[in-house]
Amino acid sequence: MTCGALGVQCIISQFHISFVDGKKMHLHDLETFVSIAQLGGVTRAAGQLHRSQPAITRRINLLEGQLGAPLFERGRGGTILTEAGRTFLPYAQAVLAALKDGTQAVQALQSEDHGAVSLAIVGTLAGTTIVKQLRRFSVTHRKARLELRTANSFEVSDMVRRGEVSLGLRYFGDASPELVCRQVSEERVVVVCSASNQWSGKRLRDPQQLRSDQWLSLPMTRHRGSFAHVVARQLASAGLDDVQVMAIDSITAQKRLIEAGIGIALLPESSIHEELRLGTLATIDVPRLRTTVPIYVLYRKNGYLTGAARTLLALISNVPIRPSGAARQSRKKKCSPSPRSN
User: Fold this and answer.
1) Which of these ranges, 101-110, 170-179, 289-298, has the smallest mean pLDDT?
2) Which CATH number fits the domain 113-184+295-324, given the four candidates 3.40.50.300, 3.40.190.10, 3.80.30.20, 3.30.70.100?
3) Quick check: 218 and 249 in contact, CB under 8 A?
4) Could you write out the DSSP letters of every residue in 81-112?
5) Which tens digit of pLDDT belongs to each residue from 169-179?
6) Is 289's pLDDT higher than 70?
7) 63 vs 142, more confident
C-alpha cells in the first residue's frame, strides 16, 4: 500500500503498538479517542474522521478492552472523559504528534522545497506588521506551504502543544515545560472610547476624570498573565481600582459596546486599527494608564520544525511586530493634543 498524498492519515492506518501480552493497539484507535475527547462526542468525531458512528464506537470499545478501563462516560448530556481517559489523553496526543513530526521530517527530506509550516496566531495580531512579514515569507519562499489559523492566546498554546501547528504567536508567555517561548515584541495597550466621547483624541493628565465611566474588560482568569490582570493592575496604579468594570468575554464584543457609547476599555492597539480607520472608535491618551503587553512565539520543545518553519521562526524573532501603518496614522491623528486637552 502506498500513501502518496494521503500523508499522516494513510500512515496511521498502517501502524500499531504491540503490548507484552500480544495485543495490538492501532493508531487509528488513538486518533478516534483523541477526536472524541477534543470534540466532546461520538457524532462530531465521526464527522471529522469521515467514519460511521458504529465504527467509531467499535474502535473505542476495542481500545477500552486493551487498556482494561473505560475511557468515557456516556449519558444524555454527551460524552465525557473518565479519570482513566483524562490520564491517557496526553499520552495519546503525544504519540499522534510524534508521528506527525516524523512524517513531516521524512517528507521534508524527500522534497526539494523547505516543507510545510503552520502558524496559529491571535486574531488581533493580524492588524500588525506580522502580516507583511508573512506575505514577505510567502513571496520569498514560494515552494514552502504556509498554513494560518487564528485563535485566542490559550487556544494558540493548545494547538502548538497538540502538534496541530508548528508555531504559535500569542500574547504573554506559556510556562508549560513542553513548550519553548521567546518574547519577540510587545504591543501598546491604549484607552479606547467611542468617536463621540468627550475625551476622544485628547490627552488626560488626571485619570480621575474617567472615574464615572463604565469600564469593560475580559473576565478575570487564574492565569496571572492575562489582559484582565493587566487592566486591573493599570487601573489600580492610576487610582481607579474601585471603578465599575463590566466583564465582557471577547474583544470584539467590547468594541461594539464602546462604539455604542456604553463604556471604555484598555485594548491592544492592533485590535482597533480598522475601527480607527473607519472613525467609529478613538483613543484617549492617559499617561498613567500607558502600558504594553508582551508578544511571544512558541513551539514544542521536542517537536520537529521543517526548514520553512525554522525560516519563519527566525523572521518573526528578528523583526519587531508593530501595529499596521494605517493604525499608527489613525492613532496619531486622533491623539494629537488640542487646546481643550487636560
Assistant:
1) 101-110
2) 3.40.190.10
3) yes
4) E-HHHHHHHHHHHHHHHHHHHHHHHHHHHHSS
5) 999 999 899 99
6) yes
7) 63
What pLDDT is stored for residue 104 in this prediction? 76
Residue whose C-alpha is closest to residue 272's, from 281, 263, 264: 281
Q: What is the pLDDT of residue 225?
A: 65
Q: Give the mean pLDDT of 123-146.
A: 85
| Coil vs helix vs strand at 306 | coil
CA distance linking residue 315 with residue 320, whole number of Å: 10
Domain layout of the chain by residue ranges: 4-109, 113-184+295-324, 187-292+326-335
| Whole-angstrom distance, CA of residue 180 vs CA of residue 299 | 5
Q: Where are the alpha helices (DSSP H) in 141-238?
A: 153-161, 227-237
Q: What φ, ψ does residue 293 adopt, rounded to 5°?
A: -125, 140
Say if CB 183 and CB 294 are below 8 A apart.
Answer: yes
Dump pLDDT digits (tens) for 73-101: 877 667 889 999 999 999 888 888 888 88
* Per-residue cell: 116: 510545510
Domain spanning 4-109 has what CATH number?
A: 1.10.10.10
> Could you check whether 4-109 and 113-184+295-324 share the same CATH topology?
no
Residue 338's contacts (CB-CB under 8 Å, 6 or more residues apart) are 201, 202
CB atoms within 10 A of CB 271: 27
CATH number 3.40.190.290 is the correct assignment for the domain at 187-292+326-335: yes
Q: Are strands 179-194 and 281-284 parallel, antiparallel or unpaired?
A: antiparallel
Dihedral (Cα; 245, 250, 252, 254), 10-degree rounding: -10
Q: Report whether pLDDT(336) > 50.
A: no
Q: Span 315-323, mean pLDDT?
A: 83
Let me know: does 146 contact 119? Beta carbons within 8 Å: yes
Q: Provide the H-helix boundaries in the chain.
A: 7-12, 27-39, 42-49, 53-67, 83-110, 130-140, 153-161, 227-237, 251-259, 273-278, 307-318, 325-335
